[in-house]
Amino acid sequence: MHIEPGLVDGAKIILSYATAAGAGLFTLKLAKDTIRQQGLASLAARTAITAAAVFSFFELLPHYAVGVSEVHFILGSTLFLLFGAAPAAIGLALGLAIQGLFFAPADLPQYGMNVTTLLVPLFAVKALADRIIAPGTAYVDLTYLQALKLSTAYQAGVVAWVAFWAFYGAGFASENLMAIGTFGIAYMSVVLIEPLADLAVLAIAKTLNALNGSGFVTRRLYNAA
User: Fold this and answer.
1) Phi/psi class of residue 84: alpha, beta or left (left: φ > 0; alpha: ψ in -120 to 50)?
2) Which of 55, 143, 177, 183 is deepest in the core (most CB within 10 A)?
3) Chain centroid to CA 158: how far?
4) Could you tell me which residues are beta bridge partners of residue 65?
């Protein structure tokens, strides 16, 4: 979901700096909570894993340009369930930065928009998980419906932010409306696939009890809140 270069330009792009800064500040709060719960070393390890995973998702998994942006399999809810909100957020930001710096420098001016589009829906997933997953339920025991709700929330958030940037940058002309609609419809493929990926990864994690208590996954993966 890279915002196309030139979609938002000039003075308008300043808003993206503000939204990215807000997302960054909230990420710092989450990181502080994570360090208190599992320590700095665990946060660093999980962040490194998620950053590498995000970079791989962007570069290796299928992705294609549709409408105002690109369709990617970001697996945001999967990263959240395995590693927790703070490592997932930092990993998303780092993976996106690495891709931009070394492989897609044309995307760097849009970094604030792209990082906002990735992180704010992740925060929504965390809030939703706190509401729909009982405190006594470990993430490895989620149902398909719960995984679907989390994945849909993430993907809907991505589409909503892409649409916002497109409207903000190019207005409500019919051509722009059509491009936004085409992008949103194309993203349905991700909504259908990601919950299955979540459950598959959680099923694998359930068999790897050696990870329970380690610093490489979020404590909630195997334990009650």
Assistant:
1) left
2) 183
3) 8
4) 70
Query: Under a CB-based contact definition with an 8 Å cutoff, are residues 34 and 193 in contact?
Result: no
* DSSP-assigned letter for residue 20: H
Contact 204, 44 (CB under 8 A): no
Residue among 73, 87, 70 nearest 198 (CA): 73
Task: Delimit the domains of the chain by residue range.
Answer: 2-221
Model pLDDT for residues 70-97, shown as the tens digit of each residue: 888 888 999 999 999 999 999 999 999 9
CA-based end-to-end distance of the chain: 32
Q: What is the CATH number of domain 2-221?
A: 1.10.1760.20
Give me the residues paired with residue 64 across strands.
71
Question: In the chain, what's the furthest Cα-to-Cα distance?
Answer: 55
Supply φ then ψ for residue 123, to 5 degrees: -65, -35
Residue 183 CA to residue 180 CA, distance in Å, equals 5
Which residues, in sequence order, are CB contacts of 203 under 8 Å at separation 6+?
Answer: 140
Report the distance separating Cα 173 and Cα 57, nearest Å: 33
User: In this structure, is the dihedral angle defined by the CA atoms of residues 24, 26, 27 and 32, taken in order, positive or negative?
Assistant: positive
Q: Whole-prediction pTM value?
A: 0.93
